[in-house]
Amino acid sequence: MREVVEKKVLSENDRVAAVLRQRYRDENILCVNIISSPGSGKTALLEKTLASFPKDAAVAVLTGDLQTDNDARRLAKYGFPVRQIVTGGTCHLDARMVEKHLDELGFRGPGILFVENVGNLVCPSSYDLGEAAKIVLLSVTEGEDKPLKYPGIFHRSSLMILTKTDLLPHVEFDPKLALENARKVHPEIEYIALSSRTREGFPEWMGWLKGLQEKVQREALAAIS
Amino acid sequence: MHEVGIAASILESVEAEARRRPDTRFAAVGVRIGELSNVDKDALEFAFAALTRKTSLAHLKLEVEWCPRRQKCLACGEEYAVREFDLRCHKCGENKTSCIGGTELDIAYLELEEPCVKS
């Protein structure tokens, strides 16, 4: 005899993610979940991003890693609250890990919370962390066909950031083709090309964050009025 | 890569259901896996078998329904499976379409063991 169940496999994660999402809304926090392969420049992007904020800005970082706290140490130099989530081998962050470390971080909104996921294009895409947007990074030293090889994460991301554009003269990488491939999977995905070394593209990136923050705030206001 | 975690989550749901109804034995659990879910069917089956071996759920079968990406045309309403990343409407060629399938990662059903019929 067959009995219909109809529930999400990750319903427990989704439940905690919904609690986080509500908390972000209540505290006026913009949370973004940054995902890429290992070595695409997530930490470098965050370093330069933190350096771009005034010292008294309300921003914080949770950074995931399989084993080390190297990234947190790199990011702590900028004076903002940073906490390392060592997953102990788990290949992604889940909502419960974020919830636990967010409490320990002691960060209060309004502000921006950056979550740097574990370097992996596959597993992090399944786990909702309550974020307002997933952001996927692709560096010019990778292949233009990565969006086609890993469609799940490009489908779920609001923004694709092409990183390390300062290396473009030295590599055979066609940004147009990479974007074309990403839009085959996700026609509405937004796109910014930047270099964390030269800061080319940073005004667009900081503007994008500001735009999303304003949008999230407008939605939060609309929900209570 | 995270299929062990996914298999463990499926088993947690089955175990919760089994605790709720101690008199029922489940023969199979049916799941739907979408092609955009980033879950590999073979790896999931392997993980599920490894996690249930020599446990009270060793007899439990995993039945996977693989779900391709599906789009719906915003112009003519046609619904279709996507091949080779060509999202355009198969019927009218429209570019504006929305994703209506392929992200599934769901537990669809439990198969209950037939009770013994006493003669």
In short:
Chain A is α/β, with parallel strands linked by helices and 225 residues long. Chain A is built from eight helices and eight strands, in the order E-H-E-H-E-H-E-H-E-E-H-H-E-H-E-H. In chain A, strands 4-3-5-2-6-7-8 form a seven-stranded parallel sheet, sandwiched between helices.
Structural commentary:
The complex is a heterodimer of chains A (225) and B (119). Chain A is an alpha/beta fold and 225 residues long. Chain A has one domain: Rossmann fold (3-Layer(aba) Sandwich). Helix content of chain A is 40%, strand content 21%. Chain A has 8 helices and 8 strands. In chain A, strand 7, helix 7 and strand 8 form a beta-alpha-beta unit. Chain A is globular and about 55 Å long. Helices cover 25% and strands 30% of the residues of chain B. In chain B, strand 1, helix 2 and strand 2 form a beta-alpha-beta unit. In chain B, helix 1 packs across helix 2. The longest helix of chain B has 18 residues. Chain B is elongated, with a radius of gyration of 19 Å. The model of chain B has no long low-confidence stretch (mean pLDDT 93). The chains are: A alpha/beta (225), B alpha+beta (119). At the A-B interface, strand 1, helix 1 and helix 6 of A face helix 1 and strand 6 of B.
Features:
heterodimer, A: 225 residues, alpha/beta, Rossmann fold, seven-stranded parallel sheet, 8 helices, 40% helix, B: 119 residues, alpha+beta, hypothetical protein PF0899 fold, three-stranded mixed sheet, three-stranded antiparallel sheet, 2 helices
- Class per helix and strand makeup of chain A: alpha/beta
Largest interface: A-B, 31 and 32 residues
Series of secondary-structure elements of chain B, N-terminal to C-terminal: HEHEEEEE
Number of helices of chain B: 2
CATH class of chain B: Alpha Beta
Going across the major beta sheet of chain A, what is the strand order?
4-3-5-2-6-7-8
Major β-sheet annotation of chain B: 3 strands, mixed
Task: Give the rounded overall mean pLDDT of chain B.
Answer: 93
Radius of gyration of chain A, CA atoms, in whole angstroms: 17 Å
Name of the CATH first level of chain A: Alpha Beta
Mean pLDDT of chain A: 95
Strand percentage of chain B lies at 25-35%
Shape type of chain B? elongated
Structural class of chain B: alpha+beta
CATH-defined topology of chain A: Rossmann fold
